[in-house]
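Input record (Table S2, row 760):
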Amino acid sequence: MYHFHKDRKEVTIDHYNTPTPWMNYLSNGTFHTMISQAGGGVAFYRSPQIWRINHYRFFHLPTDRSGFYTYIKDNQDIWCPTSEPCKLKPDQWKAAHGMGYTRYEASKNGLEVTATYMVGKYENALLWDLKLKSDEDKQITVFPYVELGMMEFMRELQWQCYNKHQLSAYNLEDILIYRYGVEDQPKPKETPLVYFACDTEISGFDCDRDEFIGSYRSEENPIRVEENACSNSTLYGGDPCFAFQLTVDLKAGEEKEIHIFLGTAMTEEEILASVKNCRQKNFISKSMEALKQDWDEFLEKFQCELPDKEAETMINIWNPYQMERNFQFSRNISYYATGTFRGVGVRDTAQDILAMIPFDTKRAKDKLNLLFTQQYQDGHCNHYFFPTEGWEPVKRIHSDNHLWLVMDVYHIVMEEGKLDYLFTELPYYDGGENGTVWGHIKRSIAFTKKHLGEKGFPLMLSSDWNDMLYKVCREGKGESIWTSMQFGTVLNMMSQIAELMGEEASEYNRTYEEQKQLINTVAWDGQWFRRCITDEGTFIGSEAEEQAKIWLNTQSWAVISGMGDPAKQVQAMDSVRKYLNTEFGIKKIHPAMKDYPSKEDPLTYYNKGCGENGSVFCHANTWAIIAECMLGRSDLAYEYYHQLLPMVVQSRAGEYRYKAEPYVYASNIFGPESDKFGLANVSWLTGTAAWMYLAATQYLLGVKPRWEGLEIAPCIPKDWENIRIERVFRGCKYHITIKNRDKKVFIEHIEGRKEFSVEV
Ligand code: IFM
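Output record (5-hydroxymethyl-3,4-dihydroxypiperidine complex):
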């Protein structure tokens, strides 16, 4: 079981053995830790590719090891407040994930332990706060432990037999230090030292993993804990770890606090200074208070009171929290993604930015500026890049990447109500003169216009949003009907911005109309819109085909772009309902493919119902919700939204069928053509987070920034009565009540201005 706590913005979990690790991300923007409900996970400094701190063993069971464990030796009993990894479990236990922290509350034999982990803003360190209380006088030994790894995970897999003998871990004034320095490592001067320290006297330590664990043992039963004696090992070559032995005397009823710090700094001097700071009285409470305040301020930008409490929990707390983590980590490292090859994806991050804009426009613009550095003078963009690692970008040209940038700019202009950002000068990836943001997005449009295919739609290039479609365009002739709709959407935006800039918009409008014409003739299949055209000129997504007849995205985007004729928009979305909707969300295609278009060269190797082949693709569901709102079909829009809330689908499918966290969205859920129908896959890092947030706040609740001001045009279920919303917009906080039955919206109060009680 798990429970949400609205007041504390927490979810508590009462069993350690969830079907998959249920993760949280702790981060101050530089030092990061992903931690599971059972204390497993991985810490890294800036990049999990090159500055990973501890071993995370993706392929071993259980799948969340190693982690940030604290062994308690109480007479002969050895257990952990995280429950894992010891076989002996606490008598009482629960974990809580909150905004930037995770807490474990455990007790055994009258000893209560609360272990809170957080990454605060004042030091680049995972802070580990242990509170210990016993109902009788006793002496216990506490062993905090971290298994270190080579900082470059890929190099470790390939070259550890040589490179690991270039590592060292040693004791400096009872602070353990790990130095990673191997031949040919990237950015040696920016590589930090890692430290492990505490604020209590130590009775022993270990830096050599094998000394601490012992042979043919694991973190379940370290020999040094069993023998109650660390070996004071240092390590100059081999497998490093950090372990302390701390002797704690407790009087009955007395509470003692111990703090552990796993951190990074560039030099030994900086480590000494950082540890000194961490050891200051109240450092932990000060860090915790700042963390809470920062999250409260962030989330305060949009709050609502709704009849649907599950939706309210997501909109107010977990959805923006997940969105922020996506914004930071792109699709880099999670329980599913190994953090080895994906840096910042232009497409993915551009979509994350859309939802960050209302929360922190400055942060959104900074990130967007970074994406613009990946745009070429001809308008296209690199696919993903590695600003921290400094590696060569992945330069494949996809038909959608550069168009998402236009959407970001439009949203920024509407949020700010000014055109200033358009004049920001930014470089192009391939040199030449810097261009303004306005100049950059004009080139996005020019690139697509210049790369139209034989039938007039944008060329697919190396695929559009759908990664799987790369096979339809290997000869460079395949065309994307969906990209045409994305193009149409941003042409509309360009046209509006051009008018605001006092420039000619007719060219954008003309191109829009040309594409629209194609959409309603060539792309219309009779009941829905086709998806794309192969190199050979065949339509995919057509009744005439045996498999993958109907695809979700061209139905929803026919509405979003406004390109489908009105009757066709409705018919297309009716077909979505008829062929694609399931009890766990809307499938991406129907029917799922097998050996299509041929056994020798199938479009996908995904099994039926999995991933890109007929799963409920949550990211794409968000666009169907938006489309239904745009059609004004509030009950359908809400049904599609509600059925995808993670706690709703998890409870419908059952915890052990759904498997993933009930508090964050997953990328996809196995579809009905799979025997694992209902299994959630790739949670946390997915474009679903940003778009579900937009769907909920800007379309269902209908609070949308427009040039003229804040539009409030809700599309909510007919039986919802009053809803209340607070939204910070252009420096003022709007307190809004929507009286659904009376079809009235009241702006009750605007903080930061003098107006009150404006009736709309
Ligand atoms: O658009 C992609 C995204 O970049 C990565 N995940 C899958 C999506 C759909 O293919």
